[in-house]
């Protein structure tokens, strides 16, 4: 009776096993209403993924010449093609893991009947008979598709349901793929220990080789490790791995892929692994001095739709714009002036290539080392491309100059240069002994009482730019700064978490903006130069040449369209006349000392008390803005030779920052051959339109009549205007609406002065005489013009003296 019951139980169990296997291997689409751990729809999706064979891989970031900058990955895997895997490796894994691989159709019925019978009798899973197809399914669902703990648990649960699900999916992929494709997908997927996934990474990790050149004993070792890659680690369990390797060698004999004689010979060989497992740097930490650029690339890609998770799993190839030669020269230039371990002080510089339809970032450097060791002044902060420091100082005067040129001023117009100027409505404070409700500014040195706008940019007195700010309005200057490149100033919350920096400056009507006292993004400042050098076209800085997926297909990136920031002719006039700083202005000595023989527009800048300093240089090929600032927990004046924190600052934009630019540019061939455009000479005296240009020198009534007839709303103001009779039109200034009908324009009438009425100092006979910068109300500059002095009495000095004599005698 007992025997009969046992036989009956055996027959029933065998029938049940057969039914379960039949259901499991039935085509997914043909088994409606059966849910085995997952819905048919989900399984179909998984099968599509399994068929594709796409696996998480290593994304590689390259420089412009194809050199690797960094590797980004979650699983260190390098997928290869079937012909890139040695035959020995394929034979070894089949011999030890699935001898009937080329005979079954994804599921080994004999083995699975045996395993299922044992598992049913045990009430759970106690024996496995997984084919390579089934192992591929299990590992794929775990290593690729599972993204949550719940999914990872489902992929590895010890249950008959999971086993049946794997069997059904294994038969489906076996019908869709060739055996060689399945074997390749499997070998590209499975873990081999020591953070290596897939056979290519394993070959590199243990043998410093590749999958195509694995020898028989090497292949046998790796095939044996698949069973338990953590336990079978040649660096912690050499004896166990050696024993397992020899088991695989014998299995290869049993399957006919290896002779017994060869197997015995191979079994006598040592494992032959590297002294330590080969690794691959992961993330931007491994990029060295390219780390800041690498981090910027990852942020840029995230903004364009490729987040860090996608990058870490996608196996992408990211070719960047970084020029290794320019990067090296830029880094050498920065660190020759500011050491990496300087306490509390950093210097950054970005090099951008101008262009009217693109804006390649060629280099991004910091004096600091990109890293985690804070004790050695390393940092992960994105210093070169974020708002840092106390400002770029007088570099911001170019925004005022650009606004002035757009409004109708001429680049050769004479501007009054009083020693001190007290402005109303532009904030308050500034220079010492400033009356209440006024903003007071002094020059850091003595200047002639009048200077051309070109020379005010080159020698950088403060007072004419504050007067221009009064006449043009703070809002217009801030708007043009944003258009030219300071885009982060418009970001909501950039000032106090709620309002933007631009809104705060405009709402407070802060005239000090023209003297550059606000934190600055050095990448954006470099791009300001690139915009001017690109005929006034703003383009977003771009570090990416191309992104391709693991199959070599280009990945689409969203791009911000370029847009016009200022008029083409305005930009050309501004750039051309800014070369005076390189040739004779506050940066000329640094240019000569660095051996720079090319052409470059330039502007120096230093903030109050020398707490930061900057330089902007650009031509048709490069634009760069070295920026030195306090980056520690305390802010103090900065000194030169060497750059450091000190009690009484003497660091100016025309010194180390200018020298950094010219040192780099003198050693970059493209920078040396860069050009600066010629410009329309109408911008010497200012040009807006034929009607407006023709009103200069007219009476107020004549000008007003002509303008109102043309539909303009007319305002008037008086300004110092050397050489222009009292009450005569000096120029007509347009507002933000330009020359549109109904726009407001301002008639600037001569107040009859020679330009020194607002001065509390005396006129000099040279454009610039340095003095200690103290309490000047904002930006200061170099303090050392070109040593090739201007003549004691220039033609302009003679003209000015002649006019003064004529005025005195009423001639």
From TrEMBL:
Residues 750-774 have a biased composition (Low complexity). Residues 687-751 form the PASTA domain. Residues 782-792 have a biased composition (Polar residues). Keywords: Carboxypeptidase, Cell shape, Cell wall biogenesis/degradation, Glycosyltransferase, Hydrolase, Multifunctional enzyme, Peptidoglycan synthesis, Protease, Transferase. GO terms for molecular function: penicillin binding; peptidoglycan glycosyltransferase activity; serine-type D-Ala-D-Ala carboxypeptidase activity. This is PASTA domain-containing protein. It comes from Corynebacterium aurimucosum. It comes from the Bacteria. GO terms for cellular component: outer membrane-bounded periplasmic space. In the N-terminal section; belongs to the glycosyltransferase 51 family. In the C-terminal section; belongs to the transpeptidase family. The keyword Transferase applies. GO terms for biological process: cell wall organization; peptidoglycan biosynthetic process; proteolysis; regulation of cell shape. InterPro entries: Beta-lactam/transpept-like, Glyco_trans_51, Glycosyltr_51/Transpeptidase, Lysozyme-like_dom_sf, PASTA_dom, PBP_transglycosylase, PCN-bd_Tpept. PANTHER family: BINDING PROTEIN TRANSPEPTIDASE, PUTATIVE-RELATED, PEPTIDOGLYCAN GLYCOSYLTRANSFERASE. SUPFAM superfamilies: beta-lactamase/transpeptidase-like, Lysozyme-like. The keyword Cell wall biogenesis/degradation applies. It catalyses: Preferential cleavage: (Ac)2-L-Lys-D-Ala-|-D-Ala. Also transpeptidation of peptidyl-alanyl moieties that are N-acyl substituents of D-alanine; [GlcNAc-(1->4)-Mur2Ac(oyl-L-Ala-gamma-D-Glu-L-Lys-D-Ala-D-Ala)](n)-di-trans,octa-cis-undecaprenyl diphosphate + beta-D-GlcNAc-(1->4)-Mur2Ac(oyl-L-Ala-gamma-D-Glu-L-Lys-D-Ala-D-Ala)-di-trans,octa-cis-undecaprenyl diphosphate = [GlcNAc-(1->4)-Mur2Ac(oyl-L-Ala-gamma-D-Glu-L-Lys-D-Ala-D-Ala)](n+1)-di-trans,octa-cis-undecaprenyl diphosphate + di-trans,octa-cis-undecaprenyl diphosphate + H(+). Residues 750-799 are annotated as: Disordered.
């Amino acid at each position: 009776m007992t025997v009969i019951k046992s036989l009956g139980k055996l027959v029933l169990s065998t029938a049940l096993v057969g039914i379960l296997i039949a259901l499991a291997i039935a085509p997914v689409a043909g088994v409606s209403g059966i849910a085995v751990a997952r819905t048919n729809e989900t399984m179909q999706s998984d099968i599509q993924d399994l068929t594709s064979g796409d696996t998480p891989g290593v994304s590689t970031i390259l420089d412009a010449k194809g050199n690797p900058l960094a590797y980004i990955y979650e699983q260190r895997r390098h997928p290869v093609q079937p012909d890139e895997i040695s035959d020995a490796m394929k034979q070894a894994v089949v011999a030890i893991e699935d001898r009937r691989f080329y005979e079954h159709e994804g599921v080994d019925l004999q083995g699975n009947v045996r395993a299922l019978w044992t598992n049913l009798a045990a009430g759970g899973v106690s024996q496995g008979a997984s084919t390579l197809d089934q192992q591929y399914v299990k590992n794929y669902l775990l290593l690729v598709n599972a993204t949550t703990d719940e999914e990872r648990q489902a992929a590895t649960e010890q249950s008959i349901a999971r086993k049946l699900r794997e069997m059904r999916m294994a038969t489906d992929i076996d019908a869709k793929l060739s055996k060689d494709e399945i074997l390749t997908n499997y070998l590209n997927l499975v873990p081999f220990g020591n953070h290596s996934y897939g056979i290519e990474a394993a070959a590199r990790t243990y043998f410093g080789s590749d999958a195509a050149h694995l020898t028989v004993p090497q292949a046998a070792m790796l095939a044996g490790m698949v069973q338990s890659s953590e336990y079978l680690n040649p660096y912690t369990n050499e004896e166990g791995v050696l024993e397992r390797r020899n088991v695989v060698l014998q299995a290869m004999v049993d399957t006919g892929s290896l002779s017994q004689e060869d197997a015995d010979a191979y079994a006598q060989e040592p494992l032959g692994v590297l002294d330590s497992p080969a690794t691959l740097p992961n993330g931007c930490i491994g990029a060295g001095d390219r780390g800041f650029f690498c981090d910027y690339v990852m942020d840029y890609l995230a903004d364009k739709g490729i987040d860090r998770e996608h990058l870490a799993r996608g196996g992408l190839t990211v070719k960047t714009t970084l020029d290794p030669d320019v990067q090296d020269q830029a880094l050498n230039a920065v660190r020759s002036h500011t050491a990496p371990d300087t306490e509390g002080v950093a210097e950054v510089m970005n090099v951008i290539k101008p262009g009217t339809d693109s804006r390649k970032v060629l280099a991004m450097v910091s004096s600091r080392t990109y890293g985690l060791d804070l004790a050695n002044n390393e940092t992960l902060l994105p210093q070169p491309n974020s708002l840092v420091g106390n400002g770029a100082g007088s570099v911001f005067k170019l925004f005022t100059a650009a606004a002035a040129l757009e409004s109708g001023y001429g680049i050769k117009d004479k501007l009054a240069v009083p020693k001190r100027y007290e402005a109303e409505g532009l904030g308050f404070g500034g220079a010492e002994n400033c009356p209440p409700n006024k903003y007071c500014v002094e020059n850091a040195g003595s200047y002639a009482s009048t200077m051309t706008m070109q020379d005010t940019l080159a020698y950088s007195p403060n007072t004419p730019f504050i007067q221009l700010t009064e006449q043009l309005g703070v809002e217009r200057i801030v708007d043009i700064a944003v258009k030219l490149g300071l885009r982060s100033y418009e970001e909501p919350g950039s000032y106090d978490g709620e309002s933007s920096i631009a809104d705060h400056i405009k709402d407070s009507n802060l005239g000090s903006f023209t003297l550059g006292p606000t934190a600055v993004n050095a990448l954006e400042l470099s791009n300001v130069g690139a915009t001017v050098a690109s005929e006034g076209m703003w383009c977003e800085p771009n570090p990416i040449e191309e992104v391709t997926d693991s199959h070599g297909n280009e990945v689409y990136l969203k791009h911000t369209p370029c847009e016009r920031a200022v008029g083409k002719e305005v930009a050309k006039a501004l750039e051309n006349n800014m070369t005076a700083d390189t040739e004779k202005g506050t940066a000329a000595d640094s240019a000569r000392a660095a051996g720079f023989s090319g052409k470059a527009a330039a502007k120096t800048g230093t903030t109050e008390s020398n707490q930061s300093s900057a330089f902007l240089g650009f031509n048709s090929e490069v634009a760069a803005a070295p920026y030195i600032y306090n980056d520690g927990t305390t802010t103090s004046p900065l000194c030169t030779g060497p750059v450091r924190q000190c009690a009484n600052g003497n660091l100016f934009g025309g010194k180390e920052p200018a020298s950094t630019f010219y040192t780099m540019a003198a050693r970059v061939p493209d920078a040396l051959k860069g050009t600066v455009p010629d410009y329309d000479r109408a911008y010497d005296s200012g040009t807006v339109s034929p009607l407006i240009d023709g009103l200069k020198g007219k009476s107020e009534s004549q000008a007003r009549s002509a303008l109102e007839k043309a539909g303009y709303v007319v305002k008037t103001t008086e300004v110092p205007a050397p050489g222009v009779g009292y009450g005569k039109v000096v120029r007509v200034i347009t507002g933000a609406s330009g020359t549109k009908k109904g726009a407001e324009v301002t008639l600037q009438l001569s107040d009859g002065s020679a330009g020194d009425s607002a001065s509390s100092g005396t006129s000099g006979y040279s454009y610039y005489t340095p003095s200690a910068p103290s309490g000047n109300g904002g930006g200061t500059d170099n303090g050392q013009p070109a040593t090739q002095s201007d003549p004691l009495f220039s033609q302009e000095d003679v003209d000015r003296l002649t006019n003064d004599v004529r005025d005195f005698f009423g001639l």
